[in-house]
Structure prediction request, 417 residues.
Amino acid sequence: MPQAVYPLDSTRSFTDQQYVGHNRWHPDIPANVTVRPGDVFRVDCREWFDGAIVNDDSADDILNAPLSTVHVLSGPFAVEGAEPGDLLIVDILDVGPIPQEDSGPLAGQGWGYTGVFAKSNGGGFLTDQFPDAYKVIWDFQGQTATSRHVPGVSFTGIIHPGLMGTAPSAELLARWTARETALIATDPHRVPPLALPPLPDDAILGTLSGADFDRVAAEAARTAPPRENGGNQDIKNFTKGTRVFYPVFVPGANLSMGDLHFSQGDGEITFCGAIEMGGFLDLHVDLIKGGMETYGVSENAIFMPGNVDPQYSQWLAFSGTSVTLDGEQKYLDSHLSYQRACLHAIDYLQKFGYSDIQAYMILGAAPIEGRLSGVVDIPNSCSTVYIPTAIFDFPVAPSADGPHQVDPGMGVPMSAG
Ligand code: ZN
Prediction:
């Protein structure tokens, strides 16, 4: 096992650890561990809500999910010699759930969860169709996930970090804040909000204290969106074997990571989210001096995905176009066409006995592929969602026999609120 440079104690909260991480982006959050180019090391990560979501059959915890507390990130890690303008190479050598045989209280200890936020607290990709809070618990056996809330389905986890990135410079942070607050100003009372402005409440900023803490808490960016530094990209193919090239904006690069997922469908459409868990990452880092200029990576990380995907060879695919459910034609709206493709798949799976929310959870958690199939054929974009047929323990393609009926099981918990 690589040297554990960032151990977390599963019995203690995020702020009660040997190293206290952070849940905001800011250049002045001090690095709490220094590594060198060429180093291999292990980092433990907490589940993104730091244990607020529990293994039970109620979705009240999702309804009341403390959104101001996310994402709890491990780091920052300073990389010796890294300077603005470099590219930071990060290899994901291994990634997995909390290494513990017995099921414990933390997501990652043999189980994980997928939630759908209520429209009033977070919302999501299909929040108009699913305005309430829901939760599914997934059990892990080796690399396989199954759920007491979703019968007839099992799949191989494509384990990956949802979030990893370098610290922004002060100038880059100011740009983020300016453009996101301008967006919010176009509809400041929208539910769910258009973006999340800086919020001092529940900010965790590593070792900062006093006046520095107050200043940084007021300025720091929230971690929900992906940005130029990588961040919460939620790319399901960041599996073991991935190499990422991050732009460096501050001395030391100040790399941070978290939000581990046991599995996820493209788009993480359920928002809360993939199959969320705590766990570990084994990383190797190196530098390409001046690499941002050399390779034209002025912003946004590039990466080479891992090659340990589950080997699914047959898919049932659903398409959607940029026409609203009310029949209104939109112009090449690929977000809408992906929604329509997903709604199409949800309608189809209900013919097999699933509830609409069970089908939605399958699309959020299983390794489905989402594609922009056509973006030029005016006025309709065409998005497609590919579902691996082997995740079902019955034939899922249309046939003359008609749809097999699953035992509905106990169903997906909904919040009492
Ligand atoms: Zn996540």
